[in-house]
Structure formats: C-alpha cells, structure tokens
Specification:
The chain has two domains: about 45 residues; about 100 residues, Immunoglobulin-like (Sandwich). It is built from one helix and seven strands. The chain has a four-stranded antiparallel sheet with strand order 2-5-6-7, with no helix packed on it. The model has no long low-confidence stretch (mean pLDDT about 80).
Length: about 150
C-alpha cells in the first residue's frame, strides 16, 4: 500500500514537473520567436538607390591617382567626386586620403567601371573592375568586383 502511494505521488510529481517544464519550454520558445522577429526587423534592409558611391584610398603627397573609365556611358554616368580627409593624420606625407566617386544610373542594363591606379608617368600599378547593374527604376548596384 505504501509502495502504491509513493508510486502515485511520484507520478503526480512528474506530471506537475512536466506541466511546469512544458510551460517553461513554451515561454522560452515564444521569447526566441519574438527575438528572431525583432532581429530581422532591425537588420538594415538593402535600400534601392539612384546613386552609387565607390571609395578609393590614396596616400597624401604620393604621385599616384585613381582614374576611371565607364564602359557604357548610356547606362551609367559620373556625377561627382569628393575627398574625405583623415582628420587624425592630416598634413602627414603618406597619410591616407579617401576619395568618393559618385555614379548615377541612366537606363536599365549592365556595364563595367574600371579604376586604374596611375603614377605621374601614366603607368598603371593597380586596376579594379566593378560590374554595375541598373534596374528599370534607375537603381544602381555593384554586382561583381574584380
């Protein structure tokens, strides 16, 4: 008789614990799901943009510059370039200086923008190509870098 009471008590305890455990599992699952939803909501979405900025670094006082060529000027046009100086190292020969090159999509299609790192004698020491895509709405993105 005592054995049966102990056995029933153990079963009741297990059931109670199982109910509590299942509630805890449900609460943890809900927290995980809401956390994932919040994370995906907070992740920045890739926005469509009508302009594309490519940034290149040069060293101050060094006789090299970046030149670019657009393969198909009917798809992409050059808008402007501007220099971003490194405030921490201003005035130091060889300090990095960044130049942003801004391009605009003109019509749907793909083209290549080739940047060449050229010295004062016109000798190319480095070359980078960007495959650019413009969609029907004029949004422009880089789809491949070489």
């Amino acid at each position: 008789m005592e054995y049966m009471l102990i056995k029933e008590l153990i079963i009741l305890l297990k059931n109670g614990v199982m109910i509590k455990m299942s509630k805890i599992v449900i609460v943890i699952s809900i927290i995980i799901v809401f956390s994932l939803i919040l994370c995906f909501w907070l992740i920045p979405k890739k926005k469509n943009t009508k302009e594309l900025e490519l940034t290149y670094k040069i060293s101050a006082g060094i006789p090299f510059k970046w030149e670019f060529e657009i393969e198909d000027l009917s798809i992409v046009s050059f808008v402007k370039s501007y220099v971003i100086k490194n405030e921490n190292k201003g005035g130091i020969v060889g300090a990095p200086i960044y130049t942003n090159y801004v391009f605009k999509g003109l019509k749907e299609g793909e083209t290549t923008i080739t940047f060449k790192f050229v010295n004062i004698n016109g000798i190319v020491s480095k070359e980078e190509k960007h495959l650019i895509k413009v969609d029907k709405d004029g949004n422009i993105i880089v789809i491949n870098d070489n």
